[in-house]
């Protein structure tokens, strides 16, 4: 699987993860030792594991997990709760069905690139493909949240600047190279990724 060079390096360099620990102690002496089941609540399932194992994913998509190892791969690439995620050319949406629910469940945001509606030369087929993709995700808003699409193509404007914590492109680089778009796409992605830790912390603390 091919992905842009921004995946591992950029996410680890530009994402600032803030942790908070809360602790409390009781001053009251318990009258009796509570039962073990009542004393210890079961650990909540990891949100990434929950997204990967969700019933919202098709059996066909899940059948590829043994080859793509999505939970391990996304964790290694630096995906964290609350991130603003950009999926570049999601295609049929194999990764979308994990990333969008994960972002929604963890308070993050999910964006995907789509056909450039500002391009007057855009084909009707490309317009329909974008509309179908948008409608399919809108029908899953309860699990996927509000999915936002951004124009993307050979004549598209730069992506939203300094916006995304995590960008994923799978099986797309060969197409960029064949169409002479590699330099444009990588430049757009570089500008779209958060590069200032100071601004990132400010965003998290507001």
What does this structure look like?
The protein is α/β, with parallel strands linked by helices. The longest helix is centred in the middle third of the chain and has 15 residues. The protein is 43% helix and 10% strand. 29% of the residues are buried. It is built from twelve helices and four strands, in the order H-H-H-H-H-H-E-H-E-H-H-E-E-H-H-H. Strands 3-2-1-4 form a four-stranded parallel beta sheet.
Overview features:
disordered N terminus; alpha/beta; disordered C terminus; 10% strand
Write a short abstract of this structure.
This protein has 206 residues and is of the alpha/beta class. The chain is built from 12 helices and 4 strands; from the N terminus they run ααααααβαβααββααα.
Largest sheet: 4 strands, parallel
Q: What kind of assembly state do the chains in view correspond to?
A: single chain
Strand order, biggest sheet?
3-2-1-4
Low-confidence stretches: 1-43, 198-206
Strand count: 4
Q: Summarize the amount of helix as a percent range.
A: 40-55%
Quote the distance from N terminus to C terminus. 37 Å
- Based on Cα principal axes, name the global outline: globular
Write the layout of secondary structure elements.
Blueprint: H1 8-14, H2 36-39, H3 47-52, H4 59-62, H5 65-68, H6 70-77, E1 84-88, H7 96-105, E2 109-115, H8 124-138, H9 141-144, E3 148-152, E4 166-169, H10 173-178, H11 182-192, H12 197-205
Parallel strand pairs: 1-2, 1-4, 2-3
